[in-house]
Write the structure tokens for this entry.
Amino acid sequence: MSRRLCTFSIGPYACALDVSLVQAVLRPGRCTPVPCAPEGVVGLLSLRGRIVTAYDLGPRLGLTQRPTPEAPFGILLASESADLCLLVDSLGEVGEAVPDRLEPVPANIDERVRSMVEAAYRGPSNLFLVLSEEAISRTVDEPHAHRGRTS
């Protein structure tokens, strides 16, 4: 049995999410910054009368946080706990993931990235990192647990 994946990029990473987690794909527009927000929280968006948290997974993947709150694209996640829009750099395609192309996460992937990924999917031209729903939820629910230390 195959599963459907939505593909996108965050910085240098080709990523994917199970389509069942995706409520919509959009151009998020301007975010309203939140003073003293935890790392990764870029701001708030108003979408169709709902307030949605705009979140940048970049810092969790070892990348720097976006210099501006704007991002070219957003993926609105279907969630019971909170409305969340993941900010992404580019969108790919939605397609069937053939089961024999799903692989364990490569051992040479940075540990910060590995903690966010449940599998790798070997597409026709890329190796996509399939993000874990549990890891995304944990990141958003416990944002202070992953802040960098200061000296």
Observations:
- The first helix runs from residue 111 to 114.
- DSSP finds two helices and eleven strands in the chain.
- The mean pLDDT is 84.
